[in-house]
């Protein structure tokens, strides 16, 4: 261990020592972290540096009024890396150039706390090894579910179990949109509201198309099931194809619709998918509304454990960041278990909800039934609501449990039928084991 790192370790062992902290990013979460630190005045933790692009604008913001006058503001990352700060708190997001900065910080003997889910999903294992090599910490409790302590809960509270399945709602934006649609609003209106409220970006694709939740699912799989997944190999499906009629049909099936992130360990393979799914009304995930997050962890010995709370917003996320910061300041250790690279597939054996919009004519149901039968899929039910014109008729078929890939083969031929006015919508339906006990 170098002389500097020996000093940092010694500092962490002294009750009256001060751990110096630098914030990278002073946006919504960064400002909230400063507010929490100012309100709580945790002993032994001192904010000394803030880095941000266009730093003068941030220094004159409302949130900056709570920052001590002694703090050094800078837009030069080298000023942080060369400083005597002990912990770098990264709240900027993205891979580049943040990854390079944090690698330099770790090599320089500075611990890192981050809320960056893309960074941890794609580079977390390598960064963790680098932190271990230099005897410093890398904590990322805020990277999934904001203020819900799902990551520390899994790392410490569930490490003695063998987790076999994860099911969760980990994107507050999608949950806000879908729970509003459940109450009768249309997608475009709710998305615009979400953007105005700051829940969704001007380009909402990271949220609504599943990229954000996919990164979080990969992080949770690594922690809970010790399975390293390639995020790009995890299947995703957009929520933008969901319409009001789908909630009407879901209600008839005693379900609602949520963006669900699922991962299930099956030997050396992990089944993983992020997609809108039909969720039984008795499931804990059906109870989650607004920006609330919920994760259900299923273990071989401990059964189901549910984590729930506010997964979005500056202050809930800041709580997770500051909690990690305090853990670093007190040199708290986490349980480390071996992680193995696993193959990933989006195939699940599950019932499926198929919604068609057709120009009605004789033989349509028979043709769909034939296409499903040809690949070995059986129809479970047929639902058709009254009041829709024959020239644009929506109806739903549900299937008995079968593989997603099987359904996709059948729909490829069904989609080519002349009567089809839209691409058929296919959603997985969660089953009994995903319900609350």
UniProtKB/TrEMBL annotation:
<keyword id="KW-0560">Oxidoreductase</keyword>
<protein>
    <submittedName>
        <fullName>Homoserine dehydrogenase</fullName>
        <ecNumber>1.1.1.3</ecNumber>
    </submittedName>
</protein>
